[in-house]
Amino acid sequence: MRTIGVLTSGGDAPGMNAAIRAVVRTGIANGLRVMGIQRGYSGLMNGEIFEMTRSSVSDIIQRGGTILKSARSAEFRTPEGRKKAYNVLKVFGIEGLVVIGGDGSFTGAKLLSDEWDIKTVGIPGTIDNDLAYTDYTIGFDTAVNTVLDAINKLRDTSTSHERVSVVEVMGRHCGDIALYAGLAGGAESIIIPEEDYNFDELCKTIIEGKVKGKLHNLILLAEGIGGAEELAKKIEEVTGIESRATVLGHIQRGGSPTAFDRILASRLGARAVELLLEGKSKRVVGIRDNKIVDFDITEALEMEKRRDDHRKLYELSKILGY
Ligand code: F6P
Asked: Is 117 annotated as catalytic?
């Protein structure tokens, strides 16, 4: 292996730059040429490729977003699109490809390696933490801290007005951002797709809280359930307590990555390059019990989340937040 490429694909996540930096510098330290591919698979098909040096990744470890830019490509989902991508990789002499992204990006990498002679390794970069094979994805910790900052502010105003505050956070079908931010922020209730919730019970908790002298009520709602405005309205109707909804949106995707995300990205980036140097392909890297691990892409995508730990956190949040 002499030349590798690196791209970021799907929704951006804080820490992607730290991962790019680790890939580039580990590659160069091992005698590889490292090519940066812009705009994900779409840029790959268009040949938006340039050689990266140690200095092209200077001063980026602290930056959110991705210097390589990101995109979602419908064309790459077709066999013709992947053939085009392979032809470009061949022209540039790229034998191994590091893909930083989520499950859709990994599926693309797998198909590319299934159909063509190109080695691929995936690095989990998404704020959603929705990849079961790894305890954490790059960007999740930063997103949780961004939500936490917002919750702290919302708590101030909710307390002053003795209101219910419904905060909707990202995560697609995964409730991890809501769960972790809710637990860290002392939310009274957390509503996530992985756990059943009962509207009457929720209202009962809010009313009981008011009777006990609670000055605010913070409800963390995952986007996989959604409907923050309607929920706040219904709560106000049933409980008689003023309620407001806040949908945090894309603010959760930006910002300087936390130390945790930077370190995770650095470790995973380095390991991804090592795997290519070992001649491996169709692998994804991750972290389990604080150890860097790697799995076959297909196996990783089919894994189920380790629900026990998750359930314990949810139960804990109910005891502590009530
Ligand atoms: O996957 C990251 C994510 O931010 C999800 O949490 C959210 O559902 C989605 O991307 C939003 O996508 P877009 O940026 O295309 O609106």
From this structure: no
